Amino acid sequence: MEASRARRGLRQDCYVYCISLILLLSPLVGGIQGQSTDANYLIGVGSYDMTGPAADVNLMGYANPEQNAAGIHMRLRARSFIVADPVLSSNRVLFVNLDACMGAQSVTLRTLSRLKSRYGGLYNEQNVVISGTHTHSGPGGYLQYVLYIVTSLGFVRQSFNAIVDGIEQSVIQAHENLRPGHILINEGELLMANINRSPSAYLNNPPEERAKYSYDVDKTMVLAKFVDQEWGEVGAFSWFAVHGTSMNRTNTLISGDNKGAAARFMEDWYREKYGEFSALAETEMLDFAPPGMRPEGLYLERRYKSSDFLKSSGGKRSTKMSSIMHRVRSPMKDSLKPPFVAAFCQSNVGDTTPNIQGAFCLDTGLACDFNHSTCNGKNEQCVGRGPAYPDDHFASTKIIAERQFKRAADLFESAKEQVVGKIQYKQTYVDFSNVVVKLPDGQVVKTCPAAIGFSFAAGTTDGPGAFSFKQGDNQGNLFWRLVGGFLKSPSKEQIECQKPKPILIDTGDMIAPYAWAPSILPISILKVGQFVILGVPAEFTTMSGRRLRDAVKSTLIEQSDGEMGDDLQVVIAGLANGYSQYVATFEEYQIQRYEGASTLFGPHTLSAYIQEFTKLATALVKNRDISPGPQPPDLVDKQLEFLPGVVLDSTPSGVTFGDLKQDVPANASYKIGEVVEVVFYTGCPRNDLLTEGTYGLVERLDSSSGKWIASYDDDDWSTRFSWYRLRTMSPGSFAKISWEIPENVQAGIYRIRHFGAYKHLFGSVKHFTGTSSSFVVSGV
Ligand SMILES: *[C@@H]1O[C@H](CO)[C@@H](O)[C@H](O)[C@H]1NC(C)=O
Ligand SMILES: *[C@@H]1O[C@H](CO)[C@@H](O)[C@H](O)[C@H]1NC(C)=O
Ligand SMILES: *[C@@H]1O[C@H](CO)[C@@H](O)[C@H](O)[C@H]1NC(C)=O
């Protein structure tokens, strides 16, 4: 049914866009002709803004209570693909890549229930994998277990909703763009983009096993290229293991870190290369909001076709004002082809770091102690250096992003191997607190209830620990003071089970005020022909990931009676559907560095995963049912929230929202590499997330038409939107918008604008905009 609908859609739409399509994609036409006969699936991609609250909310990843959002460097997006069987189109898989620290059980459960009410059972626990990129610069507070929301003052519903909404909208796009096409896969080595941050633990793996590999981290990038039969290339999803810790624990601007930046760079590259948006500068901004819905003072230009917008908002006109703004990137006028989607997905990320120069002591400048990552016995001073060091972390982020993007672009252009074969998937829930594991040597062992070891509190060389988890600690924040009283001492049995881990927090036995850590976790396999994605709810270390991939691959081959061969391409999608910290190998666990200390379910955690995945893979090949396992709890409605809302915004007398506190100097002129900086009186960004919009905009004056053309928005690498108050709790706040003139700038007259919303004491939120004086960009 879906297939015939898609084909009908194709015919109807063809009149409208085929001509422009041929012009638009002329460099690709050769390719399209060659490819069109090969369409063997229905494919669709989508992408949607999920940036969330850009103020006050703790950023997820470093557990640093002082690292709260204060603006945006780059927006965060949910990027999705769907692959369906052209004959039986209900047989399909959905993969979502989030610019978030991790997928989460809370997010998966809520997203599935949204998708269920929209599409019935089409997308469900079985065929959906939602994986996080592991950026450490996205708003937190969206996970449901206590331990992961301590530094965010508990749950933050606005963060949670932004993510679930973003996923839902991106899936709607992918669903509506589902049309005949094919997929190519490719793989290649990417050097100089990751190293191992716990090499001493890796070295404890057996020498004969280590001898099989050239590196102590995976250097392979795997890429899937999505080609629509008519539209040509619509997307690329790649997997490569590297932590999202290029931006360090002092950063307060929301950022997708190295993977988010790589995605943006590749999407821009595609557009420029294939002229997808060549008409951008000439495109007239569309004004589509019905006149009655225009708030005063807010310009309503939007560069997104209204039909697409309505489509993605579910066909309803009840658009929130927040989604009606200026965007620089949007599809070409009259093209129905959706924007190209590039996603950089996370894999067995556990012991990797993008800080490839290694870890050094801040005080002495010497290398840290190899085995303990300490300086003079202390961990706080030992910090990893990115490739740009001593230049700042933005520069390092850009380098690691560009390396991933460039490799992905090569793999994209040289991809030849077509994915062929059945679409299959299997998922189950496993209670990891109590798995009986039969080891290959016949020994029978068990996993344990979750617990965290002492090294957890020390953090890693990407972000030394700041977390004081001592029993009876009354120093923490409001949330910690409330929940810290529920800390428990581990039982003898638990101490024995977790050995040699010295237990810092016995999370698995702590269920008040609600569960501290998960025990029931989802594991998934999505298989499209020879391409296999393993959804794991954790950060697997390098060697853990290799063992799991090998086990699944050999099971699939052995059990398939010759149907599957060595061409199976198995990737791990990390931090998927749920989150349970790390999975180290048994041997790495003995060393008890951060990754071993954060392997929740004891020394045999990895063996339990391998055993359960082997069962899942066997069931998939044999087309057998597998027990769904115990249902994980949905704790979203029980959550405690302590982050205060916005009470009100105000400005000093004599000025109003959108007025300039700092303008550009009169008759200013700037060259490439210089930074333009303006400051506006503003309101709290939490009043309106401006989803798919922008807080800051650089506009260029088009001399022939006299119109201002949107040129760079707050998602662009060259702009930074910083939000600040002069004093905590002050109702007055400021938006600093800075723009570093990029190399490829078009010389001309520019100005900078700010969009925002402020809150009255009695609750109503009003939008405003402000504009700087114009200035000259000379280009050199
Ligand atoms: C690290 O620890 C191992 C095992 O205890 C020891 O053999 C090695 O010498 C240590 N390396 C350094 C550089 O301290
Ligand atoms: C974080 O990065 C900034 C900018 O690169 C740098 O000044 C600072 O020292 C770094 N801090 C840590 C703890 O790495
Ligand atoms: C700016 O330029 C105008 C016109 O060229 C000139 O009259 C004015 O004096 C200049 N102002 C400053 C502050 O340089």
UniProtKB/TrEMBL annotation:
Cofactors that this protein relies on: Zn(2+)
Protein name per its UniProtKB record: Neutral ceramidase
Enzyme class: hydrolase
Protein family according to the UniProt entry: Belongs to the neutral ceramidase family.
Record domain Neutral/alkaline non-lysosomal ceramidase C-terminal: where: 613-777
Substrates-to-products reaction catalysed: an N-acylsphing-4-enine + H2O = sphing-4-enine + a fatty acid
GO molecular function: N-acylsphingosine amidohydrolase activity
UniProt key word Acetylation: no
EC number: 3.5.1.23
Transmembrane segments: 14-32
Assigned GO CC terms: endoplasmic reticulum; extracellular region; Golgi apparatus; membrane
One GO process term, biological-process aspect: sphingolipid metabolic process
Keywords: Endoplasmic reticulum, Glycoprotein, Golgi apparatus, Hydrolase, Lipid metabolism, Membrane, Metal-binding, Secreted, Signal, Sphingolipid metabolism, Transmembrane, Transmembrane helix, Zinc
Chief place where the protein resides: endoplasmic reticulum
Subcellular location(s) per record: Endoplasmic reticulum; Golgi apparatus; Secreted
UniProt: Zn(2+) binding residues: 134, 243, 539, 582
Residues annotated as domain Neutral/alkaline non-lysosomal ceramidase N-terminal: 41-611
Cofactor note: Binds 1 zinc ion per subunit.
